Amino acid sequence: MSAHFRASRRHALAALLCTASLMALAPATADAQDSYPDKPVKLITNFPAGGPLDILGRALAVPLQSELKQPFVVDNRPGAGGNIGADVVAKAAPDGYTVLLSIDTPFTINPHVYPTMPFAEKDLKPLMIFSSSGLAFGVNPSVGAKTLPEFVEQAKKKEMSFSSAGNGSPGHLAAEIFGTATGAKILHVPYKGNAPAVTALLAGEVQAGILATPGLLPHIQAGKVKPLAVTGRQRAPLLPDVPTVGELGLPKMEFEVMYLAMVPAATPEPIVAKLQKAMAAALALPDVKQRLASLDMNALGETGKAATERLASAKARYGAVVKATGMKAE
């Protein structure tokens, strides 16, 4: 038997073994997708407990568990403007058992303000944009300002400190625009999420904050924070007497936060479809709708191309703002 013939036989045998392995793997992979989920699913939230994202995650976990017959466990991984939690999911196995619950900023603002990112845009793909919500411009009552023009006059004479949910957050951008547009003297003080930034405002550690409206609402209603403006294009339904920044001549300060879910980019489409179906069912429940309304969130439920385009549009807009203000994540 020639050496050439023996080599040919070895190559043929290797090819057969490879084909057999792939044929054995295909049904196993298909079975795994069909049986998904057959164990608990981890919902990684990339901001601290107690904030709007955490509240939304826990509101969704119960109906998701009911729909897919497995526990959905919220796991808070805050830090670096949401990058830490997003990176955990970007590097997780693409099997549907690790899902990111996030606001949009790690994908729309952070790439413009952080010198390096721990993950690439291609590492994650959106499952669904659940909802959006504006920000509220609030001050500690000790400041004494009743309107935004009054606050501007004060801030032109004396530096005012602002809390935000972190470097690169929409509140950070809005504060930078506010200072540039009005000539106000501002000092940005970043916190690790909306909840600690609200706590700092309540305690008087800072004079003002531009923060996610859901986190400020109970304190506004209790008279512990004075709202001067909201950043949505329209007045917030739960704060109908508070003017928009557009009404006050500051349309460039218009910002809305998107609340969304993402999975590793290689997650199989059948698993993505199951999760999207379950999420859509959860959003349609009356108690979830009521919960969103109580958080001043507008339900969206966008998936696929619509979600991708909405994120891309926001990223482009925020990039222009960052360039104009020279803002950095410092």
TrEMBL record:
Residues 1-32 form the signal peptide. InterPro entries: BUG, Bug_dom1, TAT_signal. It comes from the Bacteria. Transmembrane segments: none annotated. Keywords: Signal. Belongs to the UPF0065 (bug) family. This is Tripartite tricarboxylate transporter substrate binding protein. It comes from Variovorax dokdonensis. The lineage of its organism: Bacteria, Pseudomonadati, Pseudomonadota, Betaproteobacteria, Burkholderiales.
